[in-house]
Amino acid sequence: MKLNLILSAALLAGVISASAVTQPVTPAQPVSASALTNASPEDAMKALFGDPVIVKGKGFEIKQSELDEVLTGAKANAAAQGQQVPPQFSAAILNQLITIQMLLQKATPADRAAGAAEAEMQFTNLVKRFGSQEAFERQLKAVGMTVDALRAKATQEATAKAALKRELNIKVTDAEAMEFYTNHSAEFEQPEMAHARHILIMTIDPETGTPLPTNSVAEKRKQIDDILKKIRDGGDFAALASQYSEDPGSKSKGGELPEFSHGQMVPEFEAAAFALTNNQVSGVVTTKYGFHIIKLIDKTPSKKYAFTDTIPQINKTVLEICKNEVEGEKIKELAPDYIKQLRKSEQVEIVDPSLKALDESVRAAAEADATNNAEDTAVPAGK
Q: Judging by DSSP bridges, how do beta strands 349-350 and 310-311 pair with one another?
């Protein structure tokens, strides 16, 4: 069982997709029908039933809202891809939350320092993903979460992982990391990257994504043509982007986008950007979002990272990445028995009846699968 950080999966999806969570209403306070109608499903349930404790252990409790926060994001992320989250996913996430809380009870000051450093690196990379601190904070605010709250969760999870590595005495040598690199060399090839600025005049409603009326699109086309003329006449691209662009993520940076590779942008934008030479400006490019003008800053050729190279997007060396991967393999091998014993010693109890039944069902199915797999791979007698 590899301890994957929730932040990088379901929790991150929750940050991007979930509705804001308000404080529960106590039983003494009346709950209005309009409040329930306007609230998110999680808010409505909390307003009616409060925020019950669903898990108890030595020194910690887990509340329903903590599970709901992750599940909401996971469900929204799955729905966006036309998928559904299976019922047993709740049990998997709950067990991950339990594991994190148990390991926090074991964490030393050194574990906490390591967790804080790792969380800070995660945040730095996350801000890069959003393009700017402003864009990142704006998205968090839109879903009712603060930077401090998300940082606290990331720190908890990274601290738990540091504690697990220490408890299992996980150590990785440079030789083991090199072996991983040799066996996975294709994974350390960086594709060709483009770095560009753009000006976007949107032809869709930014709130609903629906196309604007034909006459509005015609006005937008005239506007982008006028902007392009100003650029051709010597106008400053960055200044014009700051003034006119309707892309909130890049507008404040003079239209500058993070570096991107093939397949990361819509096809029309990608084709135009990669066809440009350094400092060249495109004509008007039409995508499903609207009209763009693109200025290529530069292109980075594809390359293979050497073992000692640093990958700038995540500010880690290939050596560090390989060590992390080997650590993960060792954790996957050693953690299950340790977590099983820790769960007993920490006297973990799932107090919510439905979640307890689901957890027991999932565990029974997993044990049955393990038994069947063992029988299938056993060597017949006399062979």
A: unpaired
